[in-house]
Amino acid sequence: MKDTVHLIEQRLNEGKFTQHVVVNVAKIVHMQTDSVLAESVNACDVINIDGMGVVFGARFLGHDVPERVAGVDLFHELLKMSAKRDFPVFLLGATEDVVTKTAEKVQLLYPNLKVVGFNDGYFFGKKEGEDEEAVVDKIRQSGAKLLFVAITSPKKENFINKWQDKLGVDFVMGVGGTFDVVAGKVSRAPVWMQKNGLEWLYRVIQEPGRMWKRYLFTNSQFLLLLLKAKFLKK
Asked: Which of 23, 36, 71, 179 could form a Cys-Cys staple with 150, CB 3.0–4.6 A?
């Protein structure tokens, strides 16, 4: 976490555009069949491991991964840094109610933070690109230096990759369901579940009807990928 924040702050100081993404089990599984998503992720300048499943998997394959960098935690660390450095931010995604509450909450948490704009994530119209371009213009005109995008995958990764040159920001990060957590719509798993890779189970308990099939599929596919990589590699 410390290294990531330092690297991002350094790139901001140097005026280098930074596209950031976190990966979890589900995203890695979908990247195997979704070439556009894979291209969008691989185009990023900074890639962090969010899910403990990926940390455990990487260690299983012999990689030295010290810790996960959870998107919601990095979001807060970057807001602290932005408040301290007077960097303006823009919040994009979730419902209008959730993103409004998120903007209000972070302003309370970090009084010196400049939230120069926010917009919900339901702007993908029937005519491809039309509504997206209007939102991109809004972001660019806000004068934001950092942009946080809370839209589901693969929409957020593809949106960021598609419009990065026209956003007018120096840093952009997809933050998934972070706004829902910050706004109090959903709660995070207990710390012991986070550390032991059981956040997926907590989400299944919270939303069993929607989540159990998703995690059954992605977790089993990821395990298969790991076994192939471990025992069938040449």
From this structure: 179
The tokens of 143 are what?
A: 């004068």
Cβ contacts of residue 170 below 8 Å, gap of 6+? 11, 12, 15, 16, 17, 18, 145, 146
pLDDT digits (tens, 9 = 90+) for 159-213: 999 999 999 999 999 998 899 999 998 888 888 888 887 887 887 787 787 777 7
What is the value of pTM for the model shown?
Answer: 0.89
Q: Say if residues 171 and 20 touch (Cβ distance below 8 Å).
A: yes
Contact 156, 125 (CB under 8 A): no
Yes or no: say if 41 and 21 are a contact pair by the CB < 8 Å rule.
yes
> Could you tell me the pLDDT band of residue 130, with boundaries at 50, 70 and 90?
low
CA triplet 42, 25, 47: central angle to 5 degrees? Answer: 30
